[in-house]
């Protein structure tokens, strides 16, 4: 059944020539230095920027489509704000394009994602730095990003710090790879928080999702791990809290939650992200860590697709979710954001690839799928067709 759907949706993969950019204001128009107050919700003032990188991916996807009604819907996705992943030293260069058309009332979302020994509990997003390359992480990755943020004092930035890293230290410490990466993750995240603590920056440290650190036994150790690293960084004042559901699939407030009838549900009181934000937020407060959240709603429109809660790779049948907004109805949730750029793959389904992870070959994972971060046209079209609200 799922294979059939996949076959129907499988359109030509495409990376067409970049198409025209919509007219936008230049950052030069912003005449005064930005000072973000991380004791307040900055998303009530700033809108997440639809960055040029995702815009050009989406524009290329539109070019590759033939159905005119789908094309016009797809074109609207280019105007949705999303985070730009600086996922390698080379990709720091993407910053320059992204900043060039940032209006004063927008905030540029950046994902800091290049830790030594990255993605220690999986294979799909293993990074470029070995677990012992912490000095390279500092001098060739974090420092150049800091320089760029300092060079743009009149622009506002929201940073998601190192998805999956600290959660992996809490729950996957038994794996050799995570054990090896532990000191580099803790030192690297602390260094990032300390150096990126600039007046025009607000930071959210990744805390997985309700199906990860939301288990009763993980709430306290998870909060304590984040707090330890935050304190090691000198409790930087631009840290606002935590990021949840990044590249994830959980619904915001579905009740009963998607996995509420699973046999182990009694051990997890965070069956949706809203409850997770509240409970993990409370645990963070106790541990002495700022506790406001941003939540990724980029791909969480459809529920009931995953065979197991932990299935994370290219979930088949998914749809674009709620657009970025500060209207969350919850005082601890600053904003819904698009963290993962929908259409970019979570990992390859090619079992002969070095970065093949078996999660990307599961029956509920969309196949074929390219390497993590690469564009999957068919997957993008599926997200569009299943979007809620629709485009
Ligand atoms: C990949 C990155 C990519 C990001 C956003 C991650 O899974 O490892 O390379 O930039 O997703 O698509």
From TrEMBL:
This protein's record includes keyword Signal = yes
Q: Where is the active site?
A: 119, 164, 346
Task: Tell me which Pfam families the record gives.
Answer: Glyco_hydro_6 (PF01341)
Q: Where is the signal peptide?
A: 1-16
State the top-level EC class: hydrolase
Stated EC number for the protein is: 3.2.1.-
Residues holding substrate: 85, 87, 209, 212, 312, 340, 344
The entry lists its GO molecular-function terms as:
hydrolase activity, hydrolyzing O-glycosyl compounds
Q: Which PROSITE patterns match?
A: GLYCOSYL_HYDROL_F6_1 (PS00655), GLYCOSYL_HYDROL_F6_2 (PS00656)
Record keywords: Carbohydrate metabolism, Cellulose degradation, Glycosidase, Hydrolase, Polysaccharide degradation, Signal
InterPro entries in the record: Beta_cellobiohydrolase, Beta_cellobiohydrolase_sf, Glyco_hydro_6_CS
Gene Ontology biological-process annotations: cellulose catabolic process
Protein family membership: Belongs to the glycosyl hydrolase family 6.
The protein's name in its UniProt record = Glucanase
Organism source for this protein? Xylaria bambusicola
């Amino acid at each position: 059944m799922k294979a059939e759907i996949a076959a129907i949706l499988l359109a030509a993969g495409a990376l067409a020539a970049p198409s025209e950019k919509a007219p936008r204001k230049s950052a030069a128009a912003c005449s005064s230095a930005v000072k973000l107050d991380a004791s307040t919700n900055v998303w009530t003032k700033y809108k997440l920027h639809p960055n040029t990188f995702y815009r050009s991916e989406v524009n290329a996807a539109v070019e590759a489509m033939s159905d005119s009604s789908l094309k016009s819907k797809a074109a609207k996705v280019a105007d949705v704000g999303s985070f730009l992943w600086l996922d390698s030293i080379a990709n720091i260069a993407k910053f320059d394009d992204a900043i060039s058309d940032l209006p004063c009332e927008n905030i540029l979302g950046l994902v800091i994602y290049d830790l030594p020994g990255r993605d220690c509990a999986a294979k799909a997003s293993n990074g470029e730095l070995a677990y012992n390359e912490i000095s390279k992480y500092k001098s060739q990755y974090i420092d150049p990003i800091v320089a760029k943020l300092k060079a743009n004092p009149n622009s506002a930035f929201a940073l998601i710090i190192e998805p999956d890293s600290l959660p992996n230290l809490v729950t996957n410490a038994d794996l050799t790879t995570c054990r090896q990466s532990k000191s580099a993750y803790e030192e690297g995240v602390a260094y990032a928080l300390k150096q990126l603590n600039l007046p025009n920056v607000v930071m959210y440290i990744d805390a997985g999702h309700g199906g990860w650190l939301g288990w009763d036994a993980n709430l306290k150790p998870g909060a304590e791990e984040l707090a330890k690293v935050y304190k090691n960084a000198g409790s930087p004042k631009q840290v606002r809290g935590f990021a949840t559901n990044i590249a994830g699939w959980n619904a915001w407030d579905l009740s009963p939650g998607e996995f509420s009838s699973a046999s182990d549900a009694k051990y997890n009181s965070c069956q949706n992200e809203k409850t997770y934000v509240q409970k993990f937020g409370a645990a963070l407060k106790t541990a002495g860590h700022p506790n406001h959240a941003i939540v990724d709603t980029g791909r969480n429109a459809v529920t009931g697709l995953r065979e197991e809660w932990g299935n994370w790779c290219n979930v088949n049948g998914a749809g674009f979710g709620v657009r970025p907004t500060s209207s969350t109805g919850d005082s601890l949730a600053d904003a819904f954001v698009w963290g993962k750029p929908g259409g970019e793959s979570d990992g390859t389904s090619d079992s002969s690839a070095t970065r093949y992870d078996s999660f990307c070959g599961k029956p509920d994972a969309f196949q074929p799928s390219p390497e993590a971060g690469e564009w999957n046209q068919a997957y993008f079209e599926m997200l569009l067709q299943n979007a809620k609200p629709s485009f």
